[in-house]
Amino acid sequence: MIANYYAKIAGTGHYVPEKILTNFDLEKMVDTSDEWIRTRTGMRERRIASEEQAASDLAYQASLKAIKKAKIKPKDLDMIIIGTISGDHPFPSTSCILQKKLGLKNIPAFDISAGCSGWIYGTNIAKQYIENGIVKNVLVIGVEILTRITNWNDRNTCILFGDGAGATIISRAEPKDISRFIDTEITADGTHYDLLIQTAGGSKMPASKESVEKNLHTLYMEGNKIFKLAVKSMQIACELLLHRNKMDIKSIDWLITHQANMRIIQALGKRLKIDPNNVIVNIEKYGNTSAATIPIALDEAIRSGKIRHGDLILMASFGAGLTYGSLLIRL
Ligand code: UT7
To answer: Does any ligand 1 atom lie closer than 6 A to the CB of residue 159?
Structure first.
């Protein structure tokens, strides 16, 4: 497709709740150890939303920061897209609730259920609307409160997840702007849908006393199988963009992948042959915040001065569905 316009990231922001849950706290809850969690996942602590906070509250805080950074006002937004699997309610969408919080009306607002790939999926959609000239500013967010659907008796999963939100303003780039989306790809493989799933609470198995007693409304994951598929899929997604744009990995300034496991990030980096110094990692502080990991890591790296205007950034995600995707931008 010949684009009429280019899209760019005009502003970023993130918000994480104050409460910290450390590996040592988890040692008191399930049969695990700080040593096991650190060596197997790279995580040291994660954030937990307060009882009063819902996903839209986290998204709102992150949005205000991204809007400020982009030097726009909420009324300049033309669309809101949220990637989440732990929204305020099964319906309506968390995007519509955020729209109200931002004081907006009469713009499209919708959520995407693509697991940890939700933000990458959202940016892909925003790009199409901006390149076609239909909109100028899209708020794309990844937000999760996965600790609400965590089985705190299951040591295989309860050590992994944290809460947080990452927000981005995707805007139309000026013709002279060097910042722009270069390429993006999203895809899915539904044959493995049952490897990472919230079994109850939907139309197949509505919430019941039995489903709650059996913990079927919490997250279930076959971690080991997911691990292997994550590395392979994100490698495919990254290499596709490099190949399609005739780029060598050496030209990439920063790789930001979904922060699910340090060993996944390292294995992917090794396969892509990228210098570990060029890989952004913050998993030790926040654990796996699902759709929020990439926009949180991106915002942190920009605000700390690590990632600068003009840098070439390759991003890749993988999650429930199974979904995966990649995004190549010049900031
Ligand atoms: O965000 C969406 C995508 N998610 C991911 O990509 C997550 C992918 N998966 C993973 O990150 C890893 O598979 C885990 C961190 C979930 C698990 O690590 P692993 O190296 O694959 O361990 P495992 O599941 O093969 O389990 C190894 C052993 C088992 O004991 P046995 O059977 O060998 O005796 C587990 O019972 O480790 C045991 N184990 C634990 N031990 C202490 C599992 N969880 C724990 C724990 N503490 N928390």
So the answer is: yes
In this chain, the answer to whether the domains covering 7-172 and 180-330 adopt an identical fold is yes
**For ligand 1, what atom is nearest to the CA of residue 26?**
48
CATH number of 7-172: 3.40.47.10
Q: 1.10.287.110, 3.40.47.10, 3.40.50.2000, 3.40.190.10: which CATH number matches 180-330?
A: 3.40.47.10
Task: Please give the structure tokens belonging to residue 77.
Answer: 């937004």
User: For the chain, what are the domain ranges?
Assistant: 7-172, 180-330
Quote the ligand 1 centre to 323 CA distance (angstroms). Answer: 21
β-bridge mates for residue 327, sequence order: 184, 315
Are 322 and 192 in contact by the 8 Å Cβ rule? The answer is yes
- Extract the tokens encoding 294: 């990439």
Does residue 151 carry a catalytic annotation?
Answer: no
223 lines ligand 1 (CB under 6 A): yes
Residue with tokens 């809007």: 67
Among the atoms of ligand 1, which is closest to the Cα of residue 258? 1
Q: What is the pLDDT of residues 187-241, one digit of tens each?
A: 999 999 999 999 999 999 999 999 999 999 999 999 999 999 999 999 999 999 9
Active site residue 288: yes
Q: Beta strands 79-83 and 109-112: pairing type? A: parallel
Could you tell me the pTM of the whole model? Answer: 0.97
317 in contact with ligand 1, CB cutoff 6 A? no
